[in-house]
Amino acid sequence: MTLTTAEENYLKAIYHLSDGGTKSVSTNDVAAEMKTKPASVSDMLRKLGDKEVIEYRKYYGVNITEDGKKRALQTIRKHRLWEVFLVDKLQFSWDEVHEVAEELEHIQSPLLIQRLDEFLNYPKFDPHGDPIPDEFGDVRARPRVALNEMEVNQAGQIVAVKDSSAAFLKYLDKVGAYIGARIKILDKVEFDGSMEILVDQKKTLFMSKDVAANILAIQS
Amino acid sequence: MTLTTAEENYLKAIYHLSDGGTKSVSTNDVAAEMKTKPASVSDMLRKLGDKEVIEYRKYYGVNITEDGKKRALQTIRKHRLWEVFLVDKLQFSWDEVHEVAEELEHIQSPLLIQRLDEFLNYPKFDPHGDPIPDEFGDVRARPRVALNEMEVNQAGQIVAVKDSSAAFLKYLDKVGAYIGARIKILDKVEFDGSMEILVDQKKTLFMSKDVAANILAIQS
DNA sequence: ATATATTTTTAGCTATATCTAAATAAATTT
DNA sequence: AAATTTATTTAGATATAGCTAAAAATATAT
Known about the structure:
Chain A is α+β, with helices and mostly antiparallel strands. Chain A has helices at residues 5-17, 27-34, 38-50, 66-88, 94-104, 110-119, 166-175, 209-213, and strands spanning 54-56, 62-64, 144-146, 155-161, 182-188, 195-199, 203-207, 215-219. The first copy, chain A, contains 8 helices and 8 strands; from the N terminus they run αααββαααββαβββαβ. In chain A, the strands form 2 sheets. Chain A has a 6-stranded antiparallel β-sheet. In chain A, helix 1 crosses helix 2 (27-34) and helix 1 crosses helix 4 (66-88). Chain A is globular, with a radius of gyration of 20 Å. Chain A binds a DNA duplex through residues 4, 6, 26-28, 36-44, 46-47, 58-60.
């Protein structure tokens, strides 16, 4: 059973909202995510339920099925591969890729995606640092590294901190190094291990080795 | 006024059937080309008429307008650029590209097409030898060359013959070198100017310089 | 436990794009 | 010129995907 473009988009939204299928999602939440009305969502949930990509119990929200999860991951795979293409090959910047990838992800051609993957040299992460599922829907566990272990020119995304004291979090917030921030190592001072880091492609930040050692990132 | 995917496809069909807008096209012809029913075509022609991309007089077929011509050429431009991408970068063969390009051509992003054009190094012809209109809809006049003037490894498409005697055409037909055939020069014998030519990616053909000099092709 | 508020669904409508069957216009035969 | 054939359009369906307004179910507050 094939899904329409609209169905694929709903399924992807449900996958994200359910944290990869680990919790159920309400009609209202889907409506907010899809920027549409709850009435439209009810209709669509019935359709997705019929196609067995979600489990739908009226008034009790939805859970994504195993089949639905696989399909959502395939769409996510396509989206992220196209993002890599746009950034690496067509010189798009991070903030320009999403909309276009949102259209490209619905092109139906397994051969196209296989060849694109090959052409891009089997990337494991998209330009935002998000992992690209393989053709079976498997996602590579994100290898987390402390910032001080990253090399100059390495890019990545901040995903966690080791020291979660209020003082440290406050400091991070102040300098703009929040969880989820895209970073790139600009320079490393050999003498004391301090670093110069580009945050979100705009702000440059200096931090000591001690601070860097307490910030965990995934590499792109 | 933007066109839907279906409207774009109809407009492209009308452009082709009208030989680039030089003659009017009947409802039945459009139906045959689009593999749909005349009743559906009537409906669509009314819509395209409202959007002023065609001139529609009931029962008398349609003529494409200047605006319609420009839009059709933009779609054709996108289609052919994607075909070049698929063949040159993703190792698709000629016969695999059409369907996928048919989907890709509807992606809405002027920046994408501009960057793709640049990435492909501004190609002037698609893998079938058809010219790629520029961003203003201008099509480069096809430079026709006699086969004997082509270099080894040059690919192209047979578009005309100099000698159009029945005998010559009969010979061409017999060996499979019809108008429209995709060819590639495999070898050239310096001694007598005779050539070895690959036709439609499968058949190998030997021809004398005299024969080659009477066949005109466009180069890819 | 009843009333109120929130969430969700249903009913009925719109628009796109298709279809079949019937009606009508144009072209062709006789 | 009338009859027939062909081409085209209209009328009335269907399916998808959205909407608003009203109804119904669930959750929360008094």
